[in-house]
Every structure is written in C-alpha cells, then in structure tokens.
Backbone:
C-alpha cells in the first residue's frame, strides 16, 4: 500500500498540489490536504463544478461541514459508488482515502500531447483554439434552453440565435445499374445536380437535412439487411431475384385488390337496377356542359360586359367588395355543382365499364359455345353423309379403328420404353433436390451461426480496443520521471516477497497435512486398541463373573467417556482460538479505520460547533428583540 500511496502523491504533485516532503503516505494527510487533493482532481475532471469551492477549508466548523458535504455530493454525482460523506474528508482514514483518490485518478480525462509538425508557434495556436472552444462550450452549457418561439425574451442568454429545426429532402447521386441503364442520368449528376450544401434555401437547414438523409439511408439499409437475413436467405434466391419476386407479389396484390373492388361496384349497380349506356353517358356529359363553360359563351359574355362598361354607374368600394363576394359565392356554388356532376359521371363511367367487361365476358363465353356447336355440327354432318352406304362405311371404320388400336398399342409400348428411364431420372432429380435442400438448410444454419459469431467477435474486438485505450490512457497518466529500473526493482521485490510467502504457506500446509495424518493414525490405533480391550474385559466380566473385571470394565467405560469429553473440549478450544484470531484481525482493521478519528480533534470541533450555535442563538434573540 505504501507503493500505491507514493504513486498517488507523485501524481498530485505533478498536477500542481503542494505536499510537504515529510508526507509519504496517505495516513499522514490532514483534512486540509485531503480537501485540496479532492479539489485538485475535481478541477481536472470538470473545472466548472470546481469553481464554486474555495481553495482551502474555511475556519468555521459549520462552514467546513457544509463545504465538505457539497464536495462529497459533487463527487458522488460523478459516479462514485462507495460510502462517502463529510466526515471522511474532515476525519480521514488511509483505507477510504486511498480508495477515493484512486477512483478520482481513474476518472481524470487523459489529454493527448499536441504535436506541432510545422515547428514554430503552431502548437500555441492549437492550444489557444482548444481553450476558446472549451470556454465557448462551457458558456453554452450554462445557458438555459427555451423553445425557439420564445427567443425574444431577454433573460434566456444566447438562445436568441436559435431557430426552428427544419429539414429539406436532399437529392444525392446513386450508384449501380441505374446510372448505366438510364440515359442522361450521369450527365445530370455531373452537370446539373446542385451540391448538398446548395439545395436547402437556408444554410441553417443544411446540417439537419444531411443528418435526416443519412439516418433515413441507414435505416433503409438496416431494414433491407434484416429482411434479407430473415426472409431472403430462406427463399433460396439471389438478392436481385428476391426483389423482383417481391415486386411481382406487391403488384399482384394491388391488381387483385382493384379487381375485387371493381367487381363489388358492378354487383352493387346490378342490385340497384341501374342501367347505363354509352349514349346516355355522352348526353349527360353534353348536358352538363353549359354555354357559359364553352369558349363561345365566354366570348359572348366578355363582349356584353365590354359593351356595357360605359353604361354601368360608378359603385363604391363596399358595394364592389360585396359584389365580388357574391360572385365568389356563386362561383363556389357552380363549382360544387360541377364537382357533384363529375362525381356522378365518374360513377356512371365505372358502371359502363363494368357493363362492358360483363358483355366482353359474355361474348367470350358465346365464342366458346359457338366453337363447340360448330364441332358438333361437323361431326353430325359427316355422320349423315356416311349414312347412304352404311355397311361399307362401317367396315372401313372398323378397319381404321383396328389400325388405330394397333398403332395405339405400339405407341403405348414405345412410351413405356421412354417412360421408365424418365421416371428413374425424375426420382433421381427429386432425390438430388431434397439432398440439395438439406445441404442448403445446413449451410443457412452455418451462415447464421457464423454471422452471430462475427457479431460476437466484433463486440469482443470493440471491448478489447476500449480496454487497450484505457490502458494507454493509464500509461500516459503515469509519471514519466520514474525510470524503468525503479519499477523493475519494485516488481522484483514484490515477486520475491510473494515467493517467500508462498514457500512459507507451502510449509505450513505440509505441516498441517502431516499433522492430520498423524492424528488420523493415532485415532485409528486408539480405536483398535479400545475395541480389543473392551472385548477382553467384557468377556472376563460377563463370562467369569470376576468382580475385579466388572469394576475394571466400569472404570474403562468411564475413562473412555472422559477422553471423549477431553477431545471435545480440545476441539472447542481450537475453534475458540480461530474465532479469537478472526476477531483480533477485525479489531486491527477497525483500529486502522478509527486511529485517524482522534477524540481530541472531535472534542475540539464539537466545542467550536457549540460556540457557533450559541453565537447564532444570540443573534437570533437580538434580532427578535430589535
């Protein structure tokens, strides 16, 4: 622990904390030094949170307690999980203080050295720029946020420059076959498509538009990847064929939906008894178009208005507005009437189209029926032509039938010759297909396992990289003035001590093992001796009825009970000694924690608090009397 204390003290000195030369361990830290050390680390972690605290502890005891409590609250807010309160700063002990300072040392952000490749004053300018950025971010963090519509209020700081977040759809060049297959697309991208920064009308909309476009493209790519991993791989198709199949399925679904709705509309028209034809539709369209809606009607109205311009009297502004309002209302009424007529015409058109489709379907059915009737007519006509010479024609038909039967038998035999190998080939192909499907399923499972393993490996690599970066930061935070030989010497000393302790532990374990063996051997020997003696004495006392043997057996039994009690007492004594050793080690740990809590200091602080309380009570009474 002294080595860890020395390293912490060296780090505090590197950070600018003044520590006396005689202080070499954390047990020698006074409350003032503990407070300064915690405040030094807090400034390195978050300088804004360290600004309200003074450089040292105040003189008054109540102010000290308040300052220490506020500092511990801030440290807990940074993520410190162990127990921490003001008394651990005002009455520190080495164990808790070491734990606290080591956590603060790990929480200090590591800053990489600024490398100036050009030489000269470039590094200084980068440092100045970093300071300006840090101050600006600190000022922005102090400002309170309000909605963009309330930026006129003067008390909200710098938020008057805030604007409403708006995005604009951005057009970006695409890659792939679309550039080659679409003529002029590449020229449009290279010559006419404006850059992303010039597409939004306001410059403030560029960043949110880019963010939204990138997020949308990322979400689309992720959704496609998830769909391909869940559905595309199991379909057995390549990505292009899978997309084409998906597009065909969507188009077929849309077409089926259209056909269902059109059929429902046709059935509704038939049920209502509404019959429309093309001439009535044309007449309704012609009747709906009035003379005012034609170009001739509009010319006539314009000529009438132009002819009557000179005769119209002058009207006031209110009358003109009222007249315009009336004309607007009339126009709206006419527009609503025309809209209703157009809706009715569209319904009539749909009814006519459904009637046309029904007629076309009826025509197709009649064509099929006509073809069947024509075929039947030709057969009957041929039969009637053959009736005058029935016997001769029957004989010819029988010969033709016999020839056809022989031909069919030959064809059947020939087909059997071809059918058997084809069936064998079909069975073989089916077996190959099943085996390939099984292999495909196995490969798909292997692909899924490999993908899961790849994700696990990627996460493992990220974790190892983070651990590597933490180790690099910890190495950069170590003091550079200590040489490698010092660390090597310390490590060798620690290893030497560990080896020595290991040898001692091995010796103790060996002695304990040998002692257990001896105890087991002696116990077994005593057990055997006791059994033999018990048997001999019992035989003499039971068989020979010797009073000496009976009394000897009684003494032997009482001696056995006494030895058992003695062994039990010895075992309890060993357990008690172990408990005593554990309690002594716990007492030593508690003493280490409470050694720093000197009762003299506690009594002195208690007296100071009592005096401050009396002064406050006197001031309160004086104020109440005044």
Residues:
């Amino acid at each position: 622990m002294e080595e860890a204390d020395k390293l912490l003290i060296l780090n505090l000195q590197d950070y600018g904390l003044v520590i006396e030369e005689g202080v070499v361990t954390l047990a020698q830290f006074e409350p003032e030094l503990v407070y300064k050390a915690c405040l030094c680390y807090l400034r390195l972690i978050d300088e804004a949170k360290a600004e309200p605290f003074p450089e040292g502890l105040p003189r008054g005891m109540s102010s000290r307690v308040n300052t220490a409590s506020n500092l511990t609250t801030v440290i807990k807010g940074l993520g410190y999980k162990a127990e921490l309160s003001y008394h651990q700063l005002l009455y520190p002990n080495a164990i808790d203080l070491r734990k606290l300072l080591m956590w603060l040392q790990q929480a200090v952000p590591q800053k990489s050295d600024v490398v100036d490749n050009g030489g000269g004053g470039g590094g200084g300018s980068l440092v100045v720029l970093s300071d300006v950025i840090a101050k600006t971010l600190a000022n922005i963090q102090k400002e309170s946020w309000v909605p963009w519509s309330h930026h006129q209020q003067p008390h909200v700081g710098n938020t008057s420059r805030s604007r409403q977040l708006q995005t604009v759809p951005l057009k970006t060049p695409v890659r792939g076959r679309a550039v080659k297959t679409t003529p002029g697309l590449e020229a449009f991208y290279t010559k006419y498509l404006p850059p992303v920064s010039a597409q939004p009308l306001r410059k403030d909309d560029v960043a949110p538009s880019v963010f939204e476009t990138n997020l949308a493209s990322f979400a689309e790519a992720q959704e496609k990847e998830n769909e391909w991993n869940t559905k595309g791989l199991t379909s057995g198709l390549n990505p292009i064929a899978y997309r084409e199949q998906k597009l065909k399925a969507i188009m077929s679904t849309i077409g089926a939906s259209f056909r269902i709705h059109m059929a429902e509309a046709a059935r509704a028209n038939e049920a209502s008894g509404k019959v429309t034809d093309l001439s009535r539709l044309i007449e309704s369209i012609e009747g709906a178009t009035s003379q005012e809606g034609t170009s001739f009607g509009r010319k006539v109205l314009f000529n009438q208005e132009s002819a009557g311009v000179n005769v119209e009297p002058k009207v006031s502004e209110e009358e003109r507005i009222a007249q315009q309002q009336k004309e607007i209302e009339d126009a709206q009424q006419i527009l609503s009437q025309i809209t209703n007529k157009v809706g009715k015409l569209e319904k009539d058109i749909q009814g006519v189209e459904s009637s046309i489709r029904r007629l076309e379907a009826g025509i197709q059915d009649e064509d099929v029926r006509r073809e069947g009737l024509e075929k039947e007519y030709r057969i009957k006509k041929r039969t009637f032509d053959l009736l005058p010479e029935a016997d001769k024609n029957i004989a010819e038909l029988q010969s033709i039938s016999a020839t056809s039967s022989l031909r069919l038998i030959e064809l059947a035999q020939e087909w059997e010759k071809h059918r058997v190998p084809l069936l064998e080939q079909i069975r073989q192909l089916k077996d190959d297909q099943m085996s390939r499907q099984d292999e495909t399923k196995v490969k798909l499972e292997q692909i899924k396992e490999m993908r899961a393993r790849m994700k696990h490996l990627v996460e493992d690599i990220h974790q190892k990289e983070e651990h590597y970066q933490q180790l690099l930061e910890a190495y950069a935070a170590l003091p550079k003035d200590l040489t490698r030989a010092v660390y090597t010497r310390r490590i060798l000393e620690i290893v030497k001590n560990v080896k020595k302790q290991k040898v001692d532990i091995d010796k103790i374990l060996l002695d304990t093992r040998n002692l257990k063996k001896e105890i087991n051997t002696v116990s077994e020997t005593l057990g055997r001796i006791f059994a033999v003696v018990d048997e001999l004495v019992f035989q003499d006392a039971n068989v020979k009825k010797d009073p000496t043997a009976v009394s000897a057996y009684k003494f032997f039994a009482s001696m056995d009970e006494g030895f058992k009690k003695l062994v039990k007492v010895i075992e309890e004594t060993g357990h008690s000694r172990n408990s005593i050793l554990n309690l002594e080690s716990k007492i030593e740990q508690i003493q280490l924690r409470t050694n720093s809590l000197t009762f003299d200091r506690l009594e002195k602080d208690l007296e100071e608090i009592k005096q401050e309380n009396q002064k406050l009570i006197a001031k309160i009474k004086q104020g109440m009397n005044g």
